């Protein structure tokens, strides 16, 4: 009796069952959100997915932290909102791009894939409380749409199981309810000091930047990160084989030009033609001498030395070894370990009004119980993208006492002006309301 062969259908069905099992095995909404946008990628082959709950993006494929101001996040939220206005967000379907606005269609082409499937999450009363935006480059076939519709029921059930709706009602008499409301309103008028948290790093103050003096390949780094160096110490060495050969060729070319000039100078007394060429040959000698000096200078630059005492500040020597660099490219920084400042990246959504000398408190990741005080010195007017892909304002602060070690990271707490507690608590909701309705 022959054993049955496992075909493609059986494998797909097994992957589908495993995906349902992983969904039900989630122990928190954060774990479930990660699973909804990542675990189905091998089965359905989508480029990216976004989970929306109550109209807001909660998770995106391969992204650990969601920036609410990111272009892709804003596009998905607007597209899903328009999908609901058209009455197309209640059922699992392939999103019709032609029915969206012209602006969303233009954003679609630059921010998402060509074919998008909308998978709504529905509660037991039949109301949509979220959904999954699945985008890929090829169209969704009918079999995949059936599997996704079935998977949507599993996703909805799993999310409702981890976050059930629990109505809460204040069980007080009417008179006490009025007193509680009045007390809460009075508390909202209490002036409090505004503050915001932002990631921060201890960076060198007035450090010397060591840049690449020539175009070439770095042969070896002779210092390690945070190593103490003295003036004149060799920091790194470029590959010098080509430069040595160029210097040797230039020296030989200079010797040939000098010999030719000398020969013509000796014949100039008897040969008028040789006498007329002396000026030209002398100029050629000077040209070859300049080429030789330039080649020797490049060869001398292949060894980069420290111009001041301090510590070498850079990430990793292995990242530079063997890498071609261009003239002026930043390689490392030499800084005084006793002179450092605090660099803060304040997200656009968290920005508050800060005085020029606002107080800053730094809590290091390595020592979260100790507070390092600093004073704000500079604040950028324009937001710039961070390495993490978020838009943030760069702020620089000077430490009030001895600074921590350069390179340490932590969380900075920036203190603003005093404002009513209501404004402190409702600042973000009010900003969102203004952006939504324009009030």
From TrEMBL:
The source's domain of life comes to Bacteria
Q: Where in the cell is it found?
A: Cell envelope
**GO cellular component terms listed in the entry, alphabetical order:** cell envelope
Q: Which InterPro entries match?
A: UPF0194_transport (IPR050465)
Alphabetically ordered keywords of this record: Coiled coil, Membrane, Transmembrane, Transmembrane helix
Q: What's the protein name?
A: Biotin-lipoyl like
**Which organism is the protein's source?**
Pseudomonas extremaustralis
| TM region(s), chain numbering | 178-196
The UniProt entry lists the main location of this chain as other
């Amino acid at each position: 009796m022959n054993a049955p062969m496992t075909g493609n259908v059986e494998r797909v069905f097994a992957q589908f069952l495993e995906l349902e099992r992983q969904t039900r095995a989630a122990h928190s909404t954060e774990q479930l959100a990660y699973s909804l946008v990542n675990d189905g990628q091998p089965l359905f082959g989508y480029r990216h997915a976004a989970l929306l709950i109550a109209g807001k993006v909660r998770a995106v494929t391969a992204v650990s932290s969601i920036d609410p101001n990111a272009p892709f996040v804003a596009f998905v939220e607007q597209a899903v909102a328009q999908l609901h206005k058209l009455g197309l967000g209640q059922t699992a379907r392939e999103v019709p791009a032609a029915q969206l606005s012209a602006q969303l269609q233009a954003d679609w082409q630059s921010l998402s894939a060509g074919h998008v499937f909308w998978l709504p999450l529905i509660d037991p009363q039949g109301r949509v409380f979220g959904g999954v935006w699945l985008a890929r480059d090829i169209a969704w076939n009918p079999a995949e749409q059936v599997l996704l519709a079935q998977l949507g029921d599993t996703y909805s059930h799993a999310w409702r199981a981890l976050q059930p709706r629990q109505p809460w009602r204040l069980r007080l008499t009417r008179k006490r309810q009025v007193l509680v409301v009045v007390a809460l309103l009075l508390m909202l008028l209490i002036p409090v000091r505004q503050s915001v948290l932002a990631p921060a790093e201890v960076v060198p103050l007035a450090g010397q930047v060591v840049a690449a003096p020539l175009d070439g390949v770095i042969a070896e780094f002779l210092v390690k990160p945070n190593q103490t160096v003295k003036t004149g110490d060799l920091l790194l060495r470029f590959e010098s084989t080509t430069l040595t050969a160029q210097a040797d060729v230039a020296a030989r070319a200079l010797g040939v030009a000098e010999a030719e000039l000398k020969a013509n100078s000796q014949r100039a007394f008897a040969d008028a033609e040789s006498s007329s060429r002396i000026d030209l040959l002398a100029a050629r000698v000077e040209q070859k001498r300049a080429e030789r000096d330039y080649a020797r200078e490049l060869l001398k630059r292949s060894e980069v030395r420290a111009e001041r005492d301090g510590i070498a500040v850079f990430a990793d020597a292995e990242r530079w070894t063997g890498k071609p660099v261009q003239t002026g490219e930043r390689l490392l920084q030499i800084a005084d370990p006793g002179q450092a400042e605090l660099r803060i990246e304040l997200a656009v959504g968290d920005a508050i009004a800060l005085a020029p000398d606002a107080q800053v408190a730094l809590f290091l990741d390595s020592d979260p119980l100790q507070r390092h005080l600093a004073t704000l010195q500079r604040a950028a007017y324009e937001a710039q993208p961070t390495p993490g892909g978020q838009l943030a304002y760069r702020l620089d602060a000077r430490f009030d006492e001895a600074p921590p070690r350069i390179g340490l990271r932590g969380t900075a707490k920036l203190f603003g002006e005093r404002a009513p507690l209501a404004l402190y608590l409702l600042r973000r909701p009010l900003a969102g309301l203004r952006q939504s309705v324009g009030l």
